[in-house]
Specification:
It contains seven helices and four strands; from the N terminus they run E-H-H-E-H-H-E-H-H-E-H. It has one domain: 2-Layer Sandwich (Alpha-Beta Plaits). The longest helix has 11 residues. Strands 2-3-1-4 form a four-stranded antiparallel sheet, with helices on both faces. The protein is of the alpha+beta class. Helices cover 40% and strands 20% of the residues. The model has no long low-confidence stretch (mean pLDDT 97). Bound molecules: inosine-5'-diphosphate and magnesium ion. Inosine-5'-diphosphate (IDP) binds next to loops. The site of inosine-5'-diphosphate (IDP) has 9 residues, from loops.
Length: 140
């Protein structure tokens, strides 16, 4: 077990649903500490940069339109195995397939509008955090 950081995001569908407080509660209860939080809105270009690894996927255009349609909440969580812990709390990419009680199962809309993002590895977490936060905004 190692102390890690992960980039979590509440996507536009779930910001609209009003689940910011519940999301933080669930994460804190699981031992994750939010060490940076901000509410912002992506331009289309910023959403494309965030999801650049998916550029060739057929859903890239729809996904980046969705991600820039309204505000998002960005959170850096720190804790033991933060990357896997946060993804476990999210559940599967498709809310229909996600385990009972997970955030995507409870609040996600569909496979694209699935409510939440979580980094999938230490390298992607480092890229995503540096893409979205300035060093002075992150306080361990
Ligand atoms: P993840 O968010 O669970 O890591 P990824 O495969 O990295 O899933 O996909 C990134 C995002 O792209 C998903 O969270 C979801 O919003 C969207 N997405 C993934 N697969 C599909 C699909 O088959 N159709 C539409 N959107 C998808
Ligand atoms: Mg992913």
């Amino acid at each position: 077990m190692a102390i890690e950081r992960t980039l979590a995001m509440i996507k536009p569908d779930c910001v609209k649903k009003g689940v910011i407080g519940e999301t933080l509660r669930v994460a804190e209860e699981a031992g994750l500490t939010p060490i940076a939080i901000k509410r912002t809105r992506f331009s289309r270009q910023q959403a494309e940069g965030f999801y650049a690894v998916h550029r060739e996927r057929p859903f890239f255009g729809d996904l980046t339109a969705f991600m820039s349609e309204g505000p998002v909440v960005l959170i850096v969580f720190e804790g033991e195995d933060a990357i896997a812990t946060w993804r476990r709390l999210l559940g599967a990419t498709n809310p229909i397939e996600a385990d009972e009680g997970t955030l995507r199962k409870r609040f996600g809309t569909n496979i694209e509008r699935n409510g939440f993002h979580g980094s999938d590895a230490p390298e992607t977490a480092a890229f995503e955090i540096s893409y979205l936060f300035a060093g002075l905004e992150v306080h361990p």
